[in-house]
Amino acid sequence: MGSRHHTRDDAATAAADRHHSQVTLHVNGTPRTLTLDHRRALLDVLREDLDLTGAKKGCDHGQCGACTVLVDGRRVNSCLQLAVALDGSEVVTVEGLGDGGMHPLQQAFLDRDAFQCGYCTPGQICSALGAIDEARAGHPSHVTDPGTPSGRPMPLGREEIRERLSGNLCRCGAYPHIVDAVEDVIR
Amino acid sequence: MKAFAYVRAGSVEEATEAYAAHPGAKYLGGGTNLVDLMKLGVEQPGALIDVGRLPLDAVEELPDGSLRIGATVRNSDVAAHPAVRDRWPALSQALLAGASGQLRNAATTGGNLLQRTRCPYFQDVTKPCNKRQPGSGCAALEGVHRDHAVLGHSETCVATHPSDMAVALAALDARVELYGADGTRSVPAARFHRLPGDRPERDTEIRPGELVTGVVLPAATAGLPSLYRKARDRASYAFALASVAAVLRVEDGVVRHAGIAFGGLAHRPWRAERAEAALLGAAPTEAAFGHALDLELAAARPLRDNAFKVPLARNVGVDVLTRLVPPTVA
Amino acid sequence: MADPLAAHHTATGAPAERREGRQKVTGTARYAAEHPLPGRAHAWPVQAAVARGRVRAVDTSDALSMPGVLAVLTHENAPRLGEQDDATLAVLQDDRVPHRGWFVALVVAETLEQARDAAAEVHVDYAAEDHDVLLTADHPAAYVPEEANGGNPATRERGTPDADFAAAPVRIDAVYRVPPLHNHPMEPHTSTAHWDGDRLTVHTSSQGTTAVRRTLAALFGLDEERITVTAEHVGGGFGSKGTPRPDVVLATMAARRAGRPVTVSLPRRQLATVVGHRAPTVQRLRLGADRDGRLTSLIHEVDTHTSRLKEFVEQAAVPSRVMYGSPHSRTLHRVTPLDVPSPSWMRAPGEAPGMYALESAMDELADALGTDPVELRIVNDTAHEPDSGKPFSSRHLAECLREGARRFDWAGRAVRARASTGNLLVGSGVASATYPVMVSPSTASAHALPDGSFAVRINATDIGTGARTVLAQVAADALGTPLDRVRIEVGNSDLPTAPLAGGSSGTASWGWAVHEACTRLTERLAAHSGPLPADGLDARADTTGTADADSPYARHSFGAHFAEVAVDTVTGEVRVRRLLSVFAAGRILNERTARSQFIGGMTMGLGMALTESSTVDASFGDFAERDLASYHVPVHADVPAIEAHWIDEHDPHLNPMGSKGIGEIGIVGTAAAIGNAVHHATGVRFRELPLTPDRILTALRERRHAPHAAMT
């Protein structure tokens, strides 16, 4: 979060070379320019370079969803996104949702006790926000009746919410309460 | 993951030229499988040619009634596209049965086709695997292989192809468009992936440096009833134990066209040509479907621990085909 | 729930919101890898690629020449560790490879990318030896140990179980199999270590930092006073973080060698072999009963495996010493040491696999008798613990069964099953649950401040249970003050010593000490006149001698699970439609966080029933499932309507709060309830978990092809 003026990070002093490039990411509204090892995933840029540790590393292979953030408005697994390939992108993490306070979905997670250990929680929240937008944009899911018309918002019942959030594992088993929280904000 | 050079290509030509100029290069699409495999050390490209932002991101309705899906269109956008949902529903369903919302937002059409097997031995660089390291042996043949192939496998490789999308494309007679040093060409989706034979390191018919530029869904299957069904260990976010994509045209009480492909059974989406041939002209009954699929699956050679896949594929196939029969005929 | 105590406006029992909740939902809660320290380096371990043998040589030259690499630790150059009693922590000390995946090197580098890359360039030469990793019921190396885990005797026998089993008019003799299972908490095992001279600070992902500190002191030859271990937020553990793990040893070694802070966050793929697993069990159950269903003989025999490093005996027959009255009984454990990764604690060790077997066998018995399985359990209810003869301090199993049956509409299950349509077979199942009440001595301090607020300090760990919240509630009541006046500090070994979050004993153990400290502080405050001194007033408590005193009572929680499943005969897929459980677990101290824990345990039980399994790879000696794509933790779509209820239980023989434990009982018996529902739906009895489509479909086909098959 913080100021919106352009920030040139310390790491940017490292020279671009065959294996490094200068990259600008707009993170939670702030442009951040860094010189990055091409191998660095967005998740590690957030956690290691920008000290935004809300996005979590659960598996590092796109198999758990704990690292979910929004890139150009869409939810993705930040562990599988090479940061160099995202130059110029807008990234929103759990730290950037509240606009100072708490986003209604964050409040709903709190109200519904939709977590225990909290490690999957930022990913669940970002994923749910992405999923809500996808449904609004008319994206179907595996459980959507194929007859549902295209191009219109898709209704989100509990079964739809469950299917759409299935890319976010929760080992504490908070699933039913997470669905409650998501229902709270789409009502 | 090895250090690598990175080139963002601005055009298809630029991409193939950059590929040629960088030994050990790989094309990077959404990265959902390539980056995963690079972290495992399975893929060790010297350079990534980023094709993710190429102007191949359109879904175009062509004058002949076919539909071209650009290689960089994301899986979620293909699945949601009205033309796909309305006219080739099995493709939308297959995409939505795969991976997760996050992965589908990142994964590209081209990348989905080029994803590699999830065989645990392929993914573990400390174990033998002919696909990863030709000549090292196949650990799955006598190892843990419940999820492996029952059709078309060889002594050198029993891996399956993990894509759901490719199974639907195969059933729907889609073609894969390619661009390379020899210009453009296209191959049937059902023939794009290979059987392992004695060259399991080659997953597809793609030539070195060739780039997938798109897939084309033909007018011939547009608007026909089609379905995709997948059986898996958990209710979502799991690879297929077996899956079936099918398209069916029934006229005058008999089958005039059947396109059937299995997923999870072979090194490629398995187009069930014998079953299709057996159904042509036949009445679309459950018995006829079962008989046709039995003919197809007679070729199955299950491994020690995956014989269940044969009846599973048959069951799912019969179920899907039965549901495709128009109510007036049924 | 009408709680008579609620009328007193007490803090305990109220659904107080999690104290750290806001941090967790905003992403500001910091876990073990998330403490920024200047100059912090990252490390990546290298695992053995043979199942048994010796490291002949390690060539680190390539790795050391790579950019950013600071050090490569191997058994030849790693710091020598002091003695302690967990052999899995003696990493990089010798050339022995006890199992595949054992750590053989650690690369320390400036960045994670550099460390991971260089780890692939550490070349290890092995002298491999033949290995044996497969558990069989008749393995020649199997033996009956002195003890199973938890100090339970390996064998108990009453009466003449064999003769009475043989003589019983109704008999069940069946073998049940539970595969290896993995905890896979969402946060991988992680430690960040930092030396400042000979002072050591470690941020670790652990269920108890008191033990971590003690272990580090022994390993590194330090006074405990020179070590601080914190675990402010922990991303789950489920037993696998109940003891110090190699990450904390490696991070501490690496930080000493590199001379700067080092984080070791174990890659997910490495976890399966180095932080424990639930050992597989092969369990033979023999139940003999009279025609009324009363058990006359109960024989529960367990085979399990352990590693070459330690004797770990999953105590799966132990619940059969508690659950049902039977005049004749034998419960025993055999263990086979194999060249496998070391098994360890996983949620409800013993009870979870053991009750799967016992409660499945009870369902088979009900079937054989033609009795309602709910009634069969009630018929065999007992007021005295069969094994010890002690009276139960409280036991409301029958009430849980009846209340659950009512809420679930158990009586309507046959109607629902008949409504099975098309390819979906619907069935319902029931199973009991139990978990022992455990409690350990703890210390705590309470501090009254002049501004009227209080600070309670205790090295409890909040692994997601809501420990901060519930301890503040306990404190507020003992102090007679509103909840928001109480500040609570946990998760740091500099705080008063406390036991781990494990064995469903955390809240009871910590709460007892907090209650006592706060009660003493209240007494001091009552005796004090005038304003408080500037630094306030203190009281401390140590429950040694009271919390661990022998009880004349057998103390256990009980519960009952009811499951409804749909079985797809096309695919063999089983999906749970409803899961409803009722527990009797003493006083519920926070209904909000308790409900989450119950549901969480039930969800893990659903996974145990349907999706979770690890396969010992006979050729290579490790597990075939090493990631979260192949080890199938249930996803949202697997978990439909889940309800947890409880009955008010007032038990004066527990602790000052009147609570039992709730963290584990949710997983106990769940898999049996689901398996029994699958039997009800299909008519086929499955005796091996998980109930995946391959097994279901194969059995349905065999049944269809069997003579006289009668499909529903």
Using brief descriptors, characterize the structure shown.
heterotrimer, A: 187 residues, alpha/beta, Ubiquitin-like (UB roll), DNA polymerase, domain 1, six-stranded mixed β-sheet, 5 helices, 6 strands, 16% strand, C: 712 residues, alpha+beta, Aldehyde Oxidoreductase, domain 4, 23 strands, 26% helix, globular
Describe this structure in words.
- The complex is a heterotrimer of chains A (187), B (330) and C (712).
- In chain A, a hairpin with a 2-residue loop joins β4 and β5.
- In chain A, α2 crosses α5.
- Chain A has 5 helices and 6 strands.
- By secondary structure, chain A is an alpha/beta fold.
- In chain A, strands 1-3-2-6-4-5 form a 6-stranded mixed β-sheet, covered by helices on one side.
- In chain B, β10 and β11 form a beta hairpin.
- Chain B is globular, with a radius of gyration of 19 Å.
- Chain B starts with a strand and ends in a 6-residue tail after the last helix.
- By secondary structure, chain C is α+β, with helices and mostly antiparallel strands.
- Among the domains of chain C are: 130 residues, Aldehyde Oxidoreductase, domain 4 (2-Layer Sandwich); 243 residues, Aldehyde oxidase/xanthine dehydrogenase, molybdopterin binding domain (Aldehyde Oxidoreductase, domain 4, 2-Layer Sandwich), CATH 3.30.365.10.
- Chain C is globular and about 75 Å long.
- Chains in contact: A-B, A-C, B-C.
- The interface between A and C is large, with 59 and 63 residues.
* Largest interface, chains and sizes: A-C, 59 and 63 residues
Low-confidence stretches of chain B: none
Task: Provide the helix percentage of chain A.
Answer: 25-40%
Order of helices and strands of chain B: EHEHEEEHHHHHHEEHEEEEEHHH
CATH architecture verdict of the domain at 227-324 in chain B: 2-Layer Sandwich
Strand-residue proportion of chain B: 15-25%
Task: Give the CA-based shape of chain B.
Answer: globular
Spell the H/E element sequence of chain A.
EEEHEEEHHHH
Strand order of the largest sheet of chain B: 4-5-8-6-7
**CATH homology group of the largest domain in chain A:** Beta-grasp domain
Number of self-contained structural domains of chain A: 2
Task: Give the rounded overall mean pLDDT of chain B.
Answer: 97
**Cα distance spanning the termini of chain B:** 55 Å
